[in-house]
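Can't paste images in this forum, so I'm doing it all in text. The chain is below; anyone willing to post the predicted structure tokens underneath?
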Amino acid sequence: MTSNHWKQNAFWDALKMVGEAQPKNLVTRAQPEAEERGESLTADDLTEVLRSAEGGNPFLTALGLHVHRWDAASSDASWTEGTPASSEARRSLICAKLGLSAEGATELLHRRPIYHDGTVVITAPWNRWYTPERASEHAFYWPRYRDYLLSIKEWPEESVTSLDLASTEVLERLTDPTRPEAYQSKGLVVGYVQSGKTANITGVVAKAIDAGYRLVIVMTGTIEMLRAQTQRRVDMELVGKQNILGDYSAEEALEAKVDYQDDDDWLAGNFLDLGEVATEVTRLTTHKKDYQKQFKTLKIERFDKSRHLFDAKNLFPTAARLVVTKKNSTVLKKLVNDIRANKNAFAEIPVLIIDDESDLASVNTVDPEVVRAAKKEGKEVQERRAINERIAEMLDLMPRAQYVGYTATPFANVFADPSDPQGIFPRDFVIGLQRPFGYMGVEDFHDFDLDPDEHKTLANSNEKAFVRDLHASEDDVVTQERELAQAIDMFVLTGAVKLYRSHVNPALKYRHHTMLVHHSVRKAEHSDMAATIKRLWTEAQFSSPVGKGRLRQLYESDVVPVSEVRLEAGVPAPPPFDELGPFISKTISFVTEHHLNPVIVVNSDKDIQQQALDFDRHKIWRILVGGAKLSRGFTVEGLTVTYFRRATRMSDSLTQMGRWFGFRPGYRDLVRLYIARQAKFGRKDVDLYEAFESVALDETAFRQQLVKYAEWDGDKPRVVPKEIPPLVSQHLPWLLPTARNKMFNARIIEQSEQPFTPSGYSNHVDELKENVDLWRPTLAAAQGHVTLPGKGQDQFEAFIGTAGAKQVVEAIDRTRYLYLFKDRTVFPKVNFYKRLIEDGLLEDFLLVVPQPETQLVDISGVGKRSIIHRDRRHGRGGKFGEMTEPKNRPIVERFISHEVDGTALEDLTRPSRGALLLYIAKEQHPDYESTPKPKLSENDPEYGLVVAFSVYVPEEALSKNPDVIRFEVIDKDRKDAPIIDAPADA
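Text version of the structure:
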């Protein structure tokens, strides 16, 4: 053993003695071992150990994990001495406590830079029970899972640290499982599509079992394929071989057909080996079977009958139960029935319910207003959808159950009813996970950071590098097939490059290579598409001179240029095409090795004879055709080429279809997205690339809201989740955040609309008079008489002036409208204008009051003004049609874009000045509301006058605030309260 080696081991043993609670001096703690050797250790020795440590060194890895956790620790911990998290002061304190010299601190900083935790947390105050001491007291599953990620899966330290911190953020906000008083915490964890949420779930489960939770229920999506995938992952990385085998020997397990006995990873030793099990985990579901009725297995007995089940003396000797189940009403009913049969025990058992893809099936889609109305009339009514009802039953039967939803598309969850006591609204916490290292998300396929005026290149433009447009219309089958054929060629070429890279560098392994074709949700169309792909594959003639020439052209014009500027460090560049031939042949062989069929159809059609899609058991080099089964939670391994043509109305559904998001180690430069720019959606064509751009903007806006609401004042949060739910944005008018039946508790709180021309003015003469009085000062401010250019060669007379933005917006806000028109239509625009005013983007308005040659009316305090005639439209609930005149609009539109040179408005333009078209209207065929009886006399000259307006905001303000809709959640029990009080016991 070298001198440096024993010193490293001595410091490593000292680090193990320190534990995770706080940094302590390693030099003094390593001294006894040195003295036994007749030597001594100094800070210089520790510096030298750090300096000589190579990548993957176990001591450096362990130290890095500790230091990064201490970097990010809350300043509330006494040992931090008030130093801010992730600061130079904090790192200096850590190094001093570890006994590092200045040189050692510099070396550590070089090897392990200061860690900044990007997890965002909105939380209600909570009891900080999950201290480092408590976490380490019964630590067993978490440290083994962490080490598995480091050694078997070869995760980088930074990723493991991120997982450690984020999973602690979740667990510490659950209730202490040994707490005497029952309390149900409900929270939401927001990740990214295909970004490793399952790892966070597994980390939380590991820490929860260590902390004392004794029943863990993980609900996956709605399909068995995803449930089995999740079960296997948790079994392999957390449950471990010993818990899977139980008391079976290897031979007995094989004979009993215990899970995974013929699994390649099991045979290769890649399942976690726990050694001697401290706390047993009893699986109530297996890889092959979802939950079956098993009352006796679920039952939990007291070790000490004189104590409660939640007492530590009873909890920690008890085996934990694990259920991984899909969200199927029949299956969940079996689980609920068994819980009900054990309800006395489960009144005292700490339970963790994890709801993966929690916006799918879990949210109640019964309109609460319909329920309230039916109950008021004494009618029976269904109050919950089936899955939501099962979750509510579990929460009711298990008062110590904690509910944590996971999703990448959280809009349906934050729109859940906050007042529902058995609901899943995240009243206690919302946690936003940071974007993982190495992840390819929506931002990696769009150019959000690129200056619009900058020339796009393969190096600076994600769109140019990775996205290929599909221009064929829905009825242009010939062009569609040509575009699909090119995508198939790209699939063959990228597979060949992968094989070449493995040949050059055997450390690069590409077990799977897939292409996804997603164009429809209909099974019949899947079969047709599969047949088309088979035909195109045959017609491609990859080995013929024509086929090789076509592949060469695509390779040299697309694959090679992109890889030249987008290649990851350490990954071999694509070779000249002539060297790729053997690997192209091998790719074709892999793809067609199952009955010469390059396609796997992924849907519920059991009549299709084909290879099963099982990434765990088989090497998959195929083209996948599917819809719903491939768009929710399920990970498509090795996905490199995507052909995407399917439109949907919901942003969250569209996001979940983005299977091309995820981790692409060693082939990031090869990823290609073929996406429709003219997809059919109802009767209109929509640009799906633009739609995903909108999704990204919506997602970014939501995460910004999370950051905004995560702020604290001293030791108290400024808001808790139930007070102000995060706002949700909608950047495309046709792309809703989620399904309408998940938005019963949502209201639009802000919306830009250019121009905004209300049509729902009150139809009661007294309220119309109130409107005239309200607008009188603004009308009086327009006294300048001018002639303005109209549409074409027309001109028109008008009074003009200016008025402050606050005055105008207040008038818009206080105007009397038809019932609900203000809440639904005006209120969001007023909020938008108010924000522009606060941001200094809107200071005042140009007032334009057109004066057609019509009847004049003398308005008190204003003067004589022309009247236009308008009537309310039949069948529109009392609303008018268009209030403005076509010939008046062009000059106002030109004004806000500063194109009025040579007109009377030339000197009035300002960057922060909007415009307001104002009219005095009179109905020719009025049908005024008669209740209550009008107080205004019909002889009053202002009787029945309608002040109509059209609002234009400055172009500069609009450019910084595009046409975006923002939603928030309302409490149905307190409709008038914009802010909801937090629960007293939160």
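DSSP finds 32 helices and 31 strands in the chain. The CA atoms of residues 186 and 403 lie 5 Å apart.
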